[in-house]
From TrEMBL:
<feature type="active site">
    <location>
        <position position="75"/>
    </location>
</feature>
<feature type="binding site">
    <location>
        <position position="13"/>
    </location>
    <ligand>
        <name>substrate</name>
    </ligand>
</feature>
<dbReference type="InterPro" id="IPR018510">
    <property type="entry name" value="DAP_epimerase_AS"/>
</dbReference>
<comment type="similarity">
    <text>Belongs to the diaminopimelate epimerase family.</text>
</comment>
<protein>
    <recommendedName>
        <fullName>Diaminopimelate epimerase</fullName>
        <ecNumber>5.1.1.7</ecNumber>
    </recommendedName>
</protein>
<feature type="binding site">
    <location>
        <position position="46"/>
    </location>
    <ligand>
        <name>substrate</name>
    </ligand>
</feature>
<feature type="active site" description="Proton donor">
    <location>
        <position position="75"/>
    </location>
</feature>
<feature type="binding site">
    <location>
        <begin position="225"/>
        <end position="226"/>
    </location>
    <ligand>
        <name>substrate</name>
    </ligand>
</feature>
<dbReference type="GO" id="GO:0008837">
    <property type="term" value="F:diaminopimelate epimerase activity"/>
</dbReference>
<feature type="binding site">
    <location>
        <position position="207"/>
    </location>
    <ligand>
        <name>substrate</name>
    </ligand>
</feature>
<keyword id="KW-0413">Isomerase</keyword>
<comment type="subunit">
    <text>Homodimer.</text>
</comment>
<keyword id="KW-0457">Lysine biosynthesis</keyword>
<comment type="pathway">
    <text>Amino-acid biosynthesis; L-lysine biosynthesis via DAP pathway; DL-2,6-diaminopimelate from LL-2,6-diaminopimelate: step 1/1.</text>
</comment>
<keyword id="KW-0963">Cytoplasm</keyword>
<dbReference type="InterPro" id="IPR001653">
    <property type="entry name" value="DAP_epimerase_DapF"/>
</dbReference>
<dbReference type="Pfam" id="PF01678">
    <property type="entry name" value="DAP_epimerase"/>
</dbReference>
Length: 296
């Protein structure tokens, strides 16, 4: 199958964006994995499919696949790239666009300075909805909220490792587990990340965030993403970390999030049900055409 694509990035979280407004391309999970592969395909953390509005109150639908081929509910950096894509290609001239993603309807605005602000929806704290099953764990009270002590263990050819991490657990439509670290550069993201992602307490797996608080308005963050590994930035991860920090009494309502790929601004009023606003960059890198193997 011969397709056209656009390569985009938001704070270094990179995407292959597909125009599916004339109808879905019908890619298989293996074809998504191939497209996202940095050696055999184009290379991306996620693949975004832009589709026509499935209902009257939205302008588009956009469908997100991780680079492991699995479809997911939400992608913050992708949302900013999505709005830049539909406006840049003349698919809409609206500055504020409503779009259906798997988590629900979100609203995005391209700002006059070129950044994009996304209403990411409200965080979800109901543990079964995350989903998170804390059977046998006793929560630790922290600033009026809770951290969950999750035991990690792994066996490798070098021996067994084990330990407990204290996680703030919530959903931004997709599941997140955030831990506080002293120094994000030294945090064991690549060793603990996969253990947290695949821990049995998270039946749908989870995105694992490592947050260093610099002051009440500034954090540094790394995220080991479910289905994609560590990325240079994770938009929903930034929202989840800031919401967790606010609920734990550690952050103010507007926070700068520094990632290895760039900065995001996250705002949350601190009330259950109130939406999280995320502002950050979105850039087109190049356009291309490629033949996707039919046999996959
Ligand atoms: N990079 C994204 C998140 C993509 C989905 C995530 N890996 C998941 O599986 O939930 C972002 O910017 O939010």
């Amino acid at each position: 199958m011969h397709i056209r694509f656009t390569k985009m990035q938001g704070a270094g979280n990179d995407f292959v964006v597909l125009d599916e407004t004339a109808g879905p391309l019908g890619l298989t999970p293996a074809q998504y994995r191939w497209l996202a592969d940095r050696h055999f395909g184009v290379g991306a953390d996620q693949i975004l499919g832009v589709r026509p509005a499935p209902q009257a109150d939205v302008d588009f639908e956009y469908v997100i696949h991780n680079n492991d081929g699995g479809e997911v509910e939400h992608c913050g950096n992708g949302a900013r790239c999505f709005v830049r894509f539909v406006r840049g290609r003349g698919l809409t001239d609206k500055r504020t666009v409503r779009v259906k993603v798997k988590r629900g309807v979100i609203e995005l605005t391209e700002n006059v300075d070129g950044g994009v602000t996304v209403d990411m929806g409200a965080p979800v704290f109901d543990l079964p909805a995350v989903p998170f099953n804390p059977a046998g764990m006793n929560p630790i009270d922290h600033g009026g909220w809770q951290l969950w002590p999750v035991a990690l263990s792994s066996e490798t050819s070098c021996g067994a490792t084990s330990g407990t991490v204290n996680l703030a657990v919530l959903s931004m439509g997709n599941p997140h587990a955030v831990q506080l670290v002293d120094d994000v550069d030294k945090a064991p993201v690549l060793t603990q990340g996969p253990l947290i992602e695949n821990h049995p307490a998270f039946p749908n797996r989870v995105n694992a965030g490592f947050m260093q608080i610099e002051n009440r308005g500034q954090i540094r963050l790394r995220v080991y993403e479910r289905g994609a590994g560590e990325t240079l930035a994770c938009g929903t991860g930034a929202c989840a970390a800031v919401v967790a920090g606010i609920r734990l009494g550690l952050l103010d309502q507007r926070v700068q999030v520094s990632t290895h790929g760039g900065d995001l601004t996250i705002e949350w009023a601190g009330r259950e049900g109130s939406p999280v606003l995320m502002t950050g960059p979105a850039t087109t890198v190049f356009e291309g055409e490629i033949d996707i193997p039919e046999s996959l």
